[in-house]
Sequence to fold (132 residues):
Amino acid sequence: MSLQTLGPTVLVVDDSEIACESAKHTLEPSGIAVVALNSPFGFIKAIREHQPALILIDVGLGILNGSKLVQLGRKNAPLNCPIVLYSGRDAATLEQDVAASQADGFITKSTTGKDFVQAVATWIERSRRTRR
Fold:
C-alpha cells in the first residue's frame, strides 16, 4: 500500500529501526500511513512533505534529544498536529518529560497491537476536532 492510499499520516522519529518497523507494521493495516525516520536528520523536510496528523518522537535519540525535536516540530508542524513522546520509559518519567519538552503527551513503547493503534487514533481524532 502506498502512502497515498492510506488515511492520516504519522511521522515516527526513533533511532531504533525495530521501533519504526513495528509502528509501520501495526498502524498501516489499520489505514494509518507511517513515515519513519531513524534520526532527526530530515525531520523538518518530512513534516513539510507529509503534513502529518501526528508526530511521535523518541525521547532518547542519540544525536538530538526528543525535547529539542519537539521545539523544532512546534515551529514547523501543521497547526494542531499533536507532538507526542514515544518511549520505553515509565509513565511517571514520561509525564515529567512531557512537561519539560512541552509535548502534548506520551505513548509508551509497551503499548502494542490494538492498544497502540487506539492510542494513535485517539491523538489523530483530537487533532481533527481541534481543527474544526
The longest strand covers residues 9-13. The longest helix spans residues 113-131. The mean pLDDT is 90.
